[in-house]
Amino acid sequence: MDYEGIGTEARERITAAQDLPAVEALRIALLGKAGSISALLKTLGGMSPEARASEGPRIHALREGVTAALTARKDALEGAALEQRLAAERIDLTLPAPLTPRGTVHPVSQVMDELAEIFADLGFAVASGPEIEDDWHNFTALNMPESHPARAMHDTFYLEGETDDHRALLLRTHTSPVQIRSMLADGAPLRIIAPGRVYRSDSDATHTPMFHQIEGLVIDKGIHLGHLKWTLETFLKAFFERDDIVLRLRPSYFPFTEPSVEIDTGYSWQDGRRVVGGSGDAPGHSWMELLGSGMINARVLAAGGLDPDQWQGFAFGVGVDRLAMLKYGMSDLRAFFDGDARWAAHYGFAALDVPTLSAGVGARP
Amino acid sequence: MKFALSWLKDYLETDADVAAIAARLNAIGLEVEGIDDPAARLVGFCVARIISAGPHPGADKLQVLSIDAGGPDPLQVVCGAPNARAGLVGVLGLPGAVVPAGGMALKVAAVRGIESHGMMCSAREMGLGDSHEGIIELPADAPVGTAFADYHGADPVFDISITPNRPDCMGVYGIARDLAAAGLGRLKPIAARAVAGTFACPVPIRTDDAKGCPAFYGRVIRGLRNGASPEWLQTRLKSAGQRPISALVDITNYLMLGYGRPAHAYDLAKLSGAVVARRARDGESCTALNGKTYALDSSMTVIADDAGVHDIAGIMGGEHSGCSAETTDVLLEIAYFDPQCIAATGRKLTLTSDARARFERGVDPGFLDTGLDLLTALILEICGGVASEIARAGAFPVAPHRVAYDPALAERLGGVAIAPDEQQRILAALGFTVDDAWAVTAPSWRPDIVGPADIVEEVVRIHGLDRIASVALPRVDGVARPTATPLQKLERRLRRAAAARGANEAVTWSFLPPADAEVFAVADNALWLLANPISEDMKAMRPSLLPGLLRAAARGQARGSGASRLFEIGRRYLRGPGGRSNEALSLALVLTGEKGPRGWASGKAALFDAYDAKAEALALLAEAGAPAENLLVMGEAGAQFHPGQSATLRLGPKVVLARFGMLHPATLRHFDLDGPVAAVELFLDALPARKPAASFARASYAPPALQAVTRDFAFLVSAALPAGDLLRAVRMADKGLIVGARVFDDFRGPGVPEGQKSLALEVTLQPGDKSFAEADLKAIAERIVASAGKLGGVLRG
To answer: What share of chain B is helix, strand, coil (3-state, %, to 5)?
Structure first.
């Protein structure tokens, strides 16, 4: 038999098959139960052993060659069909993808998280207290008795009514009442920061009747102004991620501290913005008042139930909004409280901008 | 407080320049808020003489001057002033100078073709007056070439802020004393000379209010003339920002500004009978020098005579007995008023004055006689007249304050070692006395000194705070310990979860317009109202965070923003026990406008609906650790919400953790919002406190080896049956094997009887050790159908 001729003819027919049904029809015609090559295989049974030994491999080779040709043709046709289908499925990927909203964290919250992170490393816990406060905690216990002229400096909002024990109620003018509450609740030693909303009856471009403050308090044995200076330097260096923070301490007056110290920091103007860093006495630099602080007044320690002969410490208070503005470059405080989505998109922070010591407590744009 | 350098130098012998003085003032706690140095403004201006003046070839009104400004060659200057003429000595601004009024920088420039090397200036241009008729004409012998600042005697003015504890520095003398102690010069003694009276004080003086006015000294001066005060005095007062009025008024102001000592002069002709310090009688009033009439009460100290009240003691004199040009005889008053009484009276009358500012902080009670001597001498010198003897009522009221001090405290509290003898020097220079046992007595002008810490402050501030070295706080071993409380962690987590879900965090005012607050008022919980709000729009403390966010959303809509997702975490202010506040932590979220814009694939813009609000509420509650899967969805979200499209999420029937849904059209109208608006409010204070787990380890778990099986069921139920009830019932059919059940279709219409709906559920079953047999699945299905049947559910074929 001319197996080669049969094979050649079969391969030609396979190659000529134009679609998958034609290939399948050929497979049945050649290799199916009644196929022509299947029929050849069946002839092997009737052959002599010698003839089978010589014909068998040739018939099998024929079958394998045809099978391979069928598979190859099938793959080629399938590949071409797939290619054609995919070509038809082409889409315009310059069209916009579905929008997913991007939320933001407010700069005040972000900065408060940053401060909590820095001060946690220095061993400060976070404390809080009520904003509708009584005059004892806000003033009297902080060495501002009724007639004290410093009360007038505070532009206090009072609430209608009073407590059941006849204390006047007001919106806290500073976070300092938390000092008293923490001392009374936890005693000494103490290291806390107390962030929160505070209120003064004041409104212009740089003052809003509500703003945010953070109080710091350290009470222990042997704490002095040198510790205060180090703590503020360390905190500001970490907060601004700059080693060139220079502080200037100026004597000042707060009823709840003695001695009282105003803290200035050196800065310069760069591209119309204040940039903290360097000495205020250096060329092109000035000093800017940043925060108030001092050694806790003995009367305040006593009001907090501590023995002033045994314990001493320092306290400081700083505006959170102002820190945020200095660090992140906002210029209008009032926009902080407007809830404008455009402002939030520009000045807000991503949910994943979580301040950490390893990645840094600041989020750069 | 403002004062000129020359005034300071009356009391302080010093060679220090303005910058050195300013630096030292800052360093010792007298904060310099500004320095107005006329010399700095006058740089580049000099005295110059016009040698010749000729016509300008190109302009009739201009002249070309040749000017001698002290240099080797004359300068050519073009000038348009009518009085410019040869021989005139005036002020020349050289190229580079900046004209004080207007700020124009001078340069060499051609004026109508003729080069001009400067400008001859008018008084107005120099900021020295209003005259602009022509250029300044100085005396002919004015030294040509001299800097005009030197010729004019420009006197720098300091503006410093005095802290309330330092009434002694509310006079220039006190500032000089502080500077001298800080090594900036020598303090000159007060040049007071006692003036002996030539006749007995004709007016009886008394104090009937020993508390409010413990000491009241006075004397009469007769035959004086109250004209304008002399030039030097007027200049001083003007430098301090005071308007000169008349010699008598100016002299009392001079004493107050120079020595921090208020005093008062009454026109004797307007007084009758004894002059008494006493409490006002209820119903009395006084028309003060500011022209306003004040109703007085018995808490207030006044100075009165037989006829009535003449002075609101220590705060403001009365108009009636004030001095005028006709005044020839005066009664001088110098008294000590109690700081607390003055402060209380001033607050009650809302009347501020320079005198009040000093008395309420505490004037020097040891300065009564000296002050009266200074006052008398000045009046006699300037106004003439003869003085009576001094009448004294009451006594020197304050005992000197003595503090037991340990010089080691300076280092213990101040963190800087200062030698005891240096401490002693500083204290002495400030007027303190120190005995051998370190008992420190404060001078009478320092009412602020009460304890040893005050002495430390004095010593350290004069020694220099810049000498304090930083000292590290002691640190715990190892890595810093976590410090945040569970509540703080909750707040941080929710904030970032809400932001991650696409919402923008807002921070809104704690106070609201009362009408906005009323809309969200909590039943049986009266609003907190401010007694003295900054405006009516900021009067009520917020009972919910939603009103503030709704206002912000409305502003956004007004600005044309398509959508807003705003949230806030913060306190709402409710009533608590004891008449105090309950400041409850909550989270509010407002969804307005388009949830998704119209799109090429999505078609029309989608608006937010109540299910969006539900999704946010559940997701955030899950973040907060609430069992979001098991919360009850109940009604009563509140009147602010759409009654049919809102709900509460509860942990058991009573504990409301959240409310959500669409807002009521009336709410939208109130807040000027275009609807629909979805809102969520989480009451985080209602979350049960969870003790933190003892260990970080999770409960053991291995994913089941066998695959879960899902089966679908469709039930016909009453249209009124909440789908949640059916789901709950189905789940309860086998709590072990049924691990999930979900509604995937809610159909009403053809094939479903009127009043009913078809709910299709996908139930997920999780086999345990071995796969489900057909019989197992059949049994579970039967239990599910039976369970649904209890709610009237009929399995659809």
So the answer is: 30, 30, 45
